[in-house]
Amino acid sequence: MTLLSVERLNKKFGGVVAANDVTFALAAGEMLAIIGPNGAGKSTTFNMVGGQLRPDTGRVVLAGQDITGQPPRQICRMGVGRTFQVAQTFLSMSVAGNVQMALIAHHGRTRDVVADAAALYRAEALALLARVGMDGEADRPIGELAYGDVKRVELAIALAAAPRLLLMDEPTAGMAPRERAALMKLTADIARGSGIGVLFTEHDMDAVFAHADRILVLVRGEVIAEGTPEQVRANPEVQRVYLGTSGHKAALRARRAAHG
């Protein structure tokens, strides 16, 4: 079942073409990675899907609904969650408190925050933290956590909106290799177990080739390849302009790790 359909998105900044007829689809429960060299148009495409940028032309359709150019808040209400390259959390609050705040916002009860914030959606927050393996840290200030654990909490925060689609911008940035692998495996397990589609940008080729179901390769705003990790890895044009020898070796390492 197609969850997200991106149809011929175009975006220019002055005379610079950032996206040129970008087209792809994402199924429910699928992990789709957008990769490419710096300046390829990854962030532009990602932000047009999330509502941070309005495309010049083209459409973004979520589960049959046209969401093109809608503001991020409205897109979130329609079932799109997002994590960021730098984790977005309230460092002075507890781990559970951060997730509770997301649940409060999702349920439209922000007026109750002053009186009842500590009690609102506590059980639901703990359940979400359990999904990401962080329920044991529920009452710790989030500012005390290691960065890899903060990224797990951010994932729980994104899940608080009960998304159908999850957008992840450089999810493993700033993390150690072992933490990267653990976070991406966790995300893949959640996505495939609950039918959430995941669209993510990533520079870590080990993470991409180990966990993406399909990969979209952008160069200078254009899609030059799309397919399974095996198909993209074997594509001569992708090898020439992006992966190169080191990327090819990283892809092989990731495949071996993913299959034990």
TrEMBL record:
Classification via InterPro entries: AAA+_ATPase, ABC_AA/LPS_Transport, ABC_transporter-like_ATP-bd, BCA_ABC_TP_C, P-loop_NTPase
Nucleotide-binding listed as a keyword: yes
Any one Gene Ontology cellular component term annotated for this protein: plasma membrane
Keyword hit for Nucleotidyltransferase: no
Sequence ranges assigned to domain ABC transporter in this UniProt record: 4-245
A molecular-function term among this protein's GO annotations: ATP binding
CDD domains: ABC_Mj1267_LivG_branched
GO terms for biological process, alphabetical: D-alanine transmembrane transport; L-alanine transport; L-isoleucine import across plasma membrane; L-valine import across plasma membrane
Keywords: ATP-binding, Nucleotide-binding, Transport
SMART domains: AAA (SM00382)
PANTHER family to which the protein is assigned, alphabetical: AMINO ACID ABC TRANSPORTER ATP-BINDING PROTEIN, CONSERVED COMPONENT OF ABC TRANSPORTER FOR NATURAL AMINO ACIDS-RELATED
Protein name: Amino acid/amide ABC transporter ATP-binding protein 1, HAAT family
Source organism: Falsiroseomonas stagni DSM 19981
